[in-house]
Amino acid sequence: xxxxxxxxxxxxxxxxxxxxxxxxxAAGDLLGPDQPVALRLLEIPQGMRAAEGAAxxxxxxxxxxxxxxxxxxxxxxxxxxxxxxxxxxxRPRSAGMERGDLLAANGAIFGPQGRAIxxxxxxxxxxxxxGNPANTNALIAQQHAPDVPSERFTALTRLDHNRAxxxxxxxxxxxxxxxxxxxxxxxxxATQYPDLSHATxxxxxxxxxxxxxxxxxxxxxxxxxxxxxxxxxxGGSSVASAANAAIEHTRDWLLGTGERSAGxxxxxxVVSRGEYGVPAGLISSFPVTSAGGNWSVVEGLxxxxxxxxxxxxxxxxxxxxxxAVQELGLxx
Length: 332
Ligand SMILES: NC(=O)C1=CN([C@@H]2O[C@H](COP(=O)(O)OP(=O)(O)OC[C@H]3O[C@@H](n4cnc5c(N)ncnc54)[C@H](O)[C@@H]3O)[C@@H](O)[C@H]2O)C=CC1
Ligand SMILES: O=C([O-])CC(=O)C(=O)O
Known about the structure:
Layout: E1 6-11, H1 16-27, E2 37-42, H2 48-61, E3 66-72, H3 75-78, E4 84-87, H4 103-120, E5 126-129, H5 134-143, E6 153-155, H6 158-172, E7 179-180, E8 183-185, E9 193-195, E10 200-201, E11 204-205, H7 206-209, H8 212-215, H9 218-224, H10 226-234, H11 240-255, E12 266-271, E13 283-291, E14 294-297, H12 305-327
Parallel strand pairs: 1-2, 1-4, 2-3, 4-5, 5-6
Antiparallel strand pairs: 7-10, 8-9, 10-11, 12-13, 13-14
1,4-dihydronicotinamide adenine dinucleotide binds near residues 16, 18, 42, 43 and 188.
Family: Belongs to the LDH/MDH superfamily. MDH type 2 family.
Catalytic activity: (S)-malate + NAD(+) = oxaloacetate + NADH + H(+)
Keywords: NAD, Oxidoreductase, Tricarboxylic acid cycle
């Protein structure tokens, strides 16, 4: 292993998703078996002991790819030199709440962290926001980091994407490897739009294989409500699948989507440049590919009237969340 370590800062490292993500990142699942990683764990004082315990266990795994682990309760320390920032630390919702209900509780976390990233992180820093409401928290962080290119701030909709692929594969009775062209549009919320209009199953249009009224009805509801379904069944919000999605998002961003870029894509919430009529500046989920460390929105897809309405509804919610955090004084 001759590469210099890449510094990965994970916030909320003493929490559930942190615990599920740390060992996979340290084992090389994020950047491969030849790339050492230096981990920085950010916690609040109440979470420090749990983070310390995780660090002890990381040492006990003796991962060859783990160069170092440091723990901090100061964002300026934790983000110093960070190449990757995984912003997980924040409160999860409980049964009966929408993710947007967390805005007041969680929004205040992301301004100071954006500022610390602005001041301390490496020039190539890439930020993935997992903490809910993820899109708007990413916007808050981005707005506090004027010196960092805005496209370096993203939010996680890969979990929704993976759910959408998994549920389509189950309905079509086919392995997930046969599925491509699924898109999550908009907000990581109940208004998100899992879109099968360009999806294929073994190269055939998905809407020729599954019932279109299912695809445009119960399927959308099931994907959009999957987080609530997990909360109800498990008694707590998604953890391992969220950690997995955060790792896949980051890995694809840094290492590229590879052969999947030829007509295949994934979904991520990225800063809109006005694509598909999404107002510039909102952090909205799109069909994306990645090459050279940069996401690109897949352009030129036909958007029919049904999809237009769904995308517009989710984007309207993002605009309303932006206005709400502006009113709370969380963004300028
Ligand atoms: N975008 C997505 O697809 C998903 C997002 N989530 C969200 O991820 C977040 C974390 O979930 P869990 O790990 O299950 O929660 P958790 O409650 O188990 O852990 C959160 C950790 O964050 C820490 N924390 C709180 N404020 C912090 C701050 N300012 N700086 C650093 N650390 C801080 C807490 O001390 C705690 O250890 C929640 O907001 C949840 O809703 C969860 C699943 C999927
Ligand atoms: O639903 C939640 O609160 C957690 C989450 O974001 C998800 O599982 O997608």
